[in-house]
Amino acid sequence: MTIPRMELTAATIAVRLGKVLTQELDCDIHGTYYWTDSMTVLRYLANESCRFQTFVANRIAIIRDASCLQQWKYVNTKFNPADCATRGQSVKRFLQCSMWFEGPGFLSQPETEWPQQDAEITKLPDNDVEVKKTVLMTAETPISPVDRLLEHYSDWTRLKRAVAWILVVMKHLQERVAASKKFIQEPAKQEFEPLEPNALHRSQKLESEQSRVKQTLSLGARESLNHTRLTTENLEAAERVLVYHVQQKHWKDEIKLLNKTEGKPSSAVKKSSSLRKLDPKLVDGLLRVGGRIGRADLDFESKHQVLMPRDSPVSRLILQHIHKSVGHLGKNSILAELRRHYWIIGAPSIIKGIVSRCVTCRRYQAPAEQQKMASLPRERLALNEPPFSKVGMDYFGPFEVKRGRSMVKRYGVIFTCLTSRAVHLELAHSLDTDSCINAIRRFSARRGSVKSILSDNGTNLVGAEREMREQMRTWNQQKIHDNLLQKGISWQFNPPAGSHFGGIWERLIRSVRKILYSLMREQNVHLSDEALQTLLCEVEAIMNGRPLTECPNSPNDLDVLTPNHLLLQRSGESLPPGLFDKHDKYPVKQWRQVQYFADLFWNRWSKEYLPMLQERQKWTHPKRNVTVGDIVLVVDSSPRNSWALGRVLEVVKDKNGFVRSVKLKTKTSTLVRPVTKLCLLVEGSVE
Hints:
5-stranded antiparallel beta sheet; 25 helices; 16 strands; flat; Nucleotidyltransferase, domain 5; alpha/beta; 5-stranded mixed beta sheet
């Protein structure tokens, strides 16, 4: 708090006190005057042109609201009663002070006898710190030739070559100028001879010879430059020029201090400098790391790296060059290579940004896109719907069965109710269109009318054999649609490669298929068609008897809810199974063989499947939506380096605004893919 500010605060208190006294005193007041011995306060109040700092401006506003300028008077310090209290004196002398109790003597005189205020008192000094100063300055920073080059080059090698060529041309020009001066100066050194009749002719001949030599020098220099090839020394000189320019631009003060206190680098660098901990030193005009490993058995460049700032374009170009030279490896590999020659301040954070924006790295390392798991569709939440009104369908297999002396392949078809999670299994003899239609007709005849069927696209059966994928491509979907249309059934396909869209049946297939495969391979026994059909029915009964809720902890609780409660109106107990052992796996009595496999299936299903339903493992938070114009990699089963590049043309959003699938254009075709089969490379503009 400065003295003028405290005096202005006192003036503010005075006007507030005057306002209170005017309101509280029961007498006629003809006028109120305020006296101050501060000319600064009077100047502030009289000012009409300058703008003050916030503190002063606020208090001047308060004073002007409660008083006018004519009410303020100047009093000399020796006549100011306030000084009697603020300046130390004894109590006896204070009690005898008439000025404190009665005021200055001129107050008892007519107003015309009061001290007069000097007219110059209202002028503010030019250097008053409380006056806001507005200075408009325009400065044009000269751009050096090196900075101009940095604006046009985005590659470290190309930048060094450009600077190297400039240095080579400069050297040629200097040599050419030096040679020309030498030739011109040589005739002047010759002694003058007496004039002869043919002297003029010889002078003209000399001038002609000089002109011819100049042309020869110019042509020779041009031919020499055309045949010049850059050498390692040229590139090293260019690199040195670039580094020197950057260091002089960013650490000019540090370099000056180090030049003044050579041999004492630590004491020369300020504590606030970013180089303090690196113990910098000057070597041949360049700043290098002093460090603590000077005695290590390493080359000079590795012990005393060249220092570079973090915010220089040259530093970024160097790191980008090293990132490419080490095969697009990660941060640690880049740092190890960098510190063989350079020490860039804040290099780890710069490297992180370079790697994250590198299109090549994203092409080979970027994960597939994800999005928050969607809410359950209406089909999963419908009430009072008959079972199997809306189902999901998929194929699984194949299974080898014995027919006579040969082995043939059979396939399983799973139908799962989207509401009750009930399961129906059918046996398909092949993967052709007619076999698919027959399986659907058998299912519809046994389970009642079906309103809609959801399934994967025919080309992307997850985990299916190659033969299954090839056969599904030959399906006549129009023929299937026509047959289903006769029964009022609609068929909806998920996006290609979008297996997670059908997770409700894929998860059930995994349980059925895994255990069936393991059982058949472990037992090394081949079933017949009839035995496989029976085994599928047993598996179906077990799946429909699985608990949908937590198992009760008390015998007094109700039975656990299962799909059989809806299908059979009971929990679905089967016939007494009897006692079976591993000898029953041999096909002496096929019904006992099937029952043995069913028992094994149930044991493994209850031990391996149920614990998997405990937690939700992924897709719990919203992610960035894929947008039109994004450049993406299309994930497929081929090696990653052969994945196709595509540009997003359209996006499909769900009711919550999340993009689930997109339409994209590749080099050869237009595809529809879920976002989980895309790897983002370059973000496009948001439309």
